[in-house]
Amino acid sequence: MESNSTPRYGSMRPLLLAGGKSTRMGSPKHLLSLPDGQLLYLHLAKTLHTACPDSGTVFISLAHDSILDHSLRTATEQGRSILSPGDLQPSDRLVTLNEHNAPHLKVLMDKGKDTRQESTGPAAGLLAAHRAYPDVTWLILACDFPFCTTELLHQLQSEYQPPVTCFRNDKGFIEPLLAIWSPEALRRLEHNTANGKSSPSAVVRQLSGLVLALPRQTRFNEDGEPEFTDGLEKLSPLFNVNTKEEWETGSGADTKAVLRHWVAFH
Fold first, then answer.
1. pLDDT single digits (tens) 24-59
2. pLDDT for the residue 133
3. For residue 176, which phi and psi values (nearest 5 degrees)?
4. Which GO BP terms apply (predicted)?
C-alpha cells in the first residue's frame, strides 16, 4: 500500500503556470494575496515543491510582459531565487531542513514580444518549459487553482499514465492545467500550435489522455447527511479562479480551513 501511495517523483519536474495578462481578473493573478498574506504564486510553488521534494527547483512560467515582484525579478535576473524556509508551512519544512535545501524558483519566459501568438494562452507556458527541457515530464499546476492540495498532486503522480493525465472538474470539463504532461504530449501541443490550434484540452482528447475523477471528498454523519462547515463544500481543490468575483468568493473563505477540510476528507 505504501508503494502505491508514494510514487517515484524524481523523473518529474514541477511547473507553475503564471503567465498571461489575467484580463478577466483585472490584475496579475499570480500576485494576488491569500487571506494569510501569502502571494498566490508562492503558496502554489510551495505546494508543488512538497509534491516533488526531489526537485530542488520549482519552475515558474511567465509571459514576457508579466509583472514581477522582488522574488521573481531576482529569479529572472540571477537565474534562480531561494524560497526561504521561514516562508514555508510546518509540513513543508520536513523537506527543507535548512536554507541550502530550500527550493529555488526558476523563471521560464516565452520567446518574447515578437511572438505574440505564444504570449497568449497557457500553451505558451507549457511550450516554454518543453523547449527549455525537451525530455522532461512536467507536473503542471496553474495559478487558476488556489486550493489545490499536495494530496491532489500526489494522486496525479500515483495514477499517471503517459502521454498525459489530468482531472475532470465538477462540471464535467477536463482540466489540462492541473495535469502531468509528457514530452510526447508537449510535442503534439507544439505541432498543433504551429498550425494555429493551441488548446491543451484538444491534445488530451487527441491522445486519449487519462482523465481522473475528483475523489469523493464528503464525510457523512450518522444520519447519512453530508458534514460541512462554513460553506466549504463550494470550494473544491479544483475551484477555478478567473475573475475578481471568483477570487472574492474563494478568498472570502478561511483558506487554511478550506485546505484542512479537503485534506481531511481525502
1. 545 567 777 777 677 888 889 999 999 998 888 999
2. 94
3. -75, -5
4. Mo-molybdopterin cofactor biosynthetic process
* Contacts for 10 with CB less than 8 Å, ≥ 6 apart: 54, 55
pLDDT of residue 103: 72
pLDDT at 40: 83
- Write phi, then psi, for 128 (nearest 5 degrees): -60, -40
Q: How far is CA 64 from CA 19, 29, 37, 115, in A?
A: 8, 15, 26, 10
User: For the chain, which residues make up each domain, given as ranges?
Assistant: 9-264
Residue at 60: amino acid letter: I
What b/e string do you get for 28-55 counting C-beta neighbours within 10 Å, with b at 16 or more?
A: bbbbbebeeebbbbbbbbbbbbbbbbeb
How wide is the angle at C-alpha 179 spanned by C-alphas 42 and 236, nearest 5°? 70
Which grid cell is 226? 453530508
Dihedral sign of CA atoms 245, 249, 250, 253 in order: positive
Q: Which residues contact 207 (CB under 8 A, 6 or more apart)?
A: 163, 164, 184, 185, 188
Check: CB of residue 16 under 8 Å from CB of residue 45. Answer: yes
Q: What pTM was estimated for this model as a whole?
A: 0.74
The CA distance from 203 to 210, in Å, is 11
Q: Which CATH number fits domain 9-264: 2.60.40.1220, 3.30.565.10, 3.90.550.10, 3.90.1150.10?
A: 3.90.550.10
Alpha-carbon span 59 to 76, nearest angstrom: 11
